[in-house]
């Protein structure tokens, strides 16, 4: 049984054309490769394309063939190599090679036949030779068919192993998914039982709490009137403190302005003192008039005394400002305490379990949201939309050059 127009893979050690290059590759290995699905051809790249290799004939620690040039090995899927051979007319070259061998065998056997003088023997020999050639062609065709069947068998075997591995992964994933769901169901059953028990206990507690709240309601209503009176008193105190605070702020601003003026005057006196000292030094250097020098010294002493008095006055006013700031701070603290007391009263008034009409407020339970609710396709493995759990696309086989 033959396959017309099919490319037969040459024996190991044969040279194969390499796409888009004038250099060739040597066929070193044909078969499966660990960690990859399908049938691969192990090639040693020659010439300028040797630097395109990716390994030394080993994958995952397993050696499949040896190379003469380091890192010149390349594993290529069998279907790609057959495509290269079809595009380069490899069958025609192989047929020409077989025809040449036949012609050579014919030419070498001719002298032996011609040595026989009998025409009958010549005819028998020619007939036998034609029959042998026919059988040789059929044998070559059968060998080619067997090679192609072996390749197809390897491909089917690799596909079968790939399908078995994929089925085992899916079965493992299904078992894991089933175990997870069983655990979730058991957890939900235990949670429901626990919640039912808690609901029964909570009902008893709520009944007791309602009775306590009804008793407290009467006390709170009686205390609210007193709290309102206290609230009015506290508001009056806060208003008084605010007025006092504004007064203290005005006093502080006035002191601050006066202090700024005194500082400016002090700087002015210091500048005049500096000028007097310069004049004094000039007089000491340029004149011997002691009377004038004494007058300047006395004038300088008066300025120094005036400056010291101003500094003392500024220090007294600084202490007064500090006292005012402390008083202002204490006033702000008292104001904050009163505000906190008012807020506490408001919280006590608003934190009760009764509404504005005096009735009990309704209990509103919290609602948990399911992430898969309202979604047609939702995967529980990767927590993504667009596909179901059984069709998760994140485990796919990928045959590549390596």
Write out key terms for the chains shown.
single chain; 402 residues; alpha+beta; SH3 type barrels; 4-stranded antiparallel β-sheet; two-stranded antiparallel ribbon; 4 helices; elongated; disordered N terminus; disordered C terminus
Description:
Residues 96-120 are annotated as: Disordered. InterPro entries: CAP-Gly_dom_sf, CAP-Gly_domain, Znf_CCHC. It holds the Pfam family CAP_GLY. This protein is an alpha+beta fold. Among the domains are: 1-89, CAP Gly-rich-like domain (SH3 type barrels, Roll); 231-350. It is 66% helix and 9% strand. Strands 1-2-3-6 form a 4-stranded antiparallel β-sheet. The protein has a two-stranded antiparallel sheet with strand order 4-5. Strands 7-8 form a two-stranded antiparallel sheet.
Number of helices: 4
How far do the termini sit from each other? 35 Å
> Biggest sheet, strands in spatial order?
1-2-3-6
* Gyration radius from CA atoms, angstroms: 54 Å
**Global morphology:** elongated
GO molecular function: nucleic acid binding; zinc ion binding
Domain CAP-Gly: 31-77
Pfam families: CAP_GLY (PF01302)
Region (Disordered): 96-120
Question: What is the topological layout?
Answer:
Elements: E1 15-17, E2 24-33, E3 36-45, E4 58-59, E5 62-63, E6 73-77, H1 78-87, H2 90-114, H3 119-286, H4 290-350, E7 378-379, E8 384-385
Brief digest:
This protein has 402 residues and is an alpha+beta fold.
